[in-house]
């Protein structure tokens, strides 16, 4: 018996209830799950509850949670200030179509914290924020294409999947270049700059492997975008944590658009944002808003005191 099969046998013996539940799940959900990033063979454990840095599976086994729900639980599970804010908000209702005091207060908090922001558009997911940012850039510039880095993940909007999953450029929609390769980016811009509405930047690549920017690289990208009158779109869904003012403050950037998410939702869904200055914010195309965008039950815990 090989070492790997011995490990698998021990795993199966320790997690029979998870195996049973995943088998049931496979009958009603493709692959038995709704999040491929948390799947692993022969089957993932089924979580019963979480508290602080710990999670417990349905077999009663305790684990240190190193994933933290895709890095959205910056304070861990069941964080008391967030829980208290949710409990206080729920008696007033969970969601309505109009604005709320909580929504306005949270937008004010974000603009005060992040100097790059002047106005905020709330969305339900990072994917939606990315899609709106790209649509806004195209609408404002009148150009059809974006430029992004190979291997950078910005959600499930198809145009932003260029450079992922074996895909290369998407003709007429998206160009790709290597991260930290300013010469390669210059070549793309010199040839296609008149078509490119925005350069979409994940300041530190984290998909598959972590790749930090070389000194001065991000500033060079921003300068290159300005030279060709394209927008700089900063995806700070993950890297906002690098500084109080996000990666823009960390690296001295002045992006035209900022995408936020993850822990800014207070470990709750329905708070992501696409942000930008007033000079072009009015150019965002009109469209239907999502039903649960910055609802009181989400905006309130998002703005709850969460420490430094």
Order of helices and strands: HHEEEHHHEHEEHEHEHEEHH
Helix residue percentage: 25-40%
The main sheet orders its strands as 4-10-9-8-7-5-6
In DSSP terms (H or I, runs of 4 or more residues), the helix count works out at: 11
What are the segments in which pLDDT stays under 50 over at least 5 consecutive residues?
Answer: 267-272, 278-283
Give me the CATH superfamily of the largest domain: Type I PLP-dependent aspartate aminotransferase-like (Major domain)
Structural overview:
It is a single chain. This protein is of the alpha/beta class. The protein has eleven helices and ten strands. The protein folds into two domains: 64 residues, no CATH class; 223 residues, Aspartate Aminotransferase, domain 2 (3-Layer(aba) Sandwich). About 4% of the residues have low confidence. It has a seven-stranded mixed sheet, sandwiched between helices. Strands 1-2-3 form a three-stranded antiparallel sheet, with no helix packed on it.
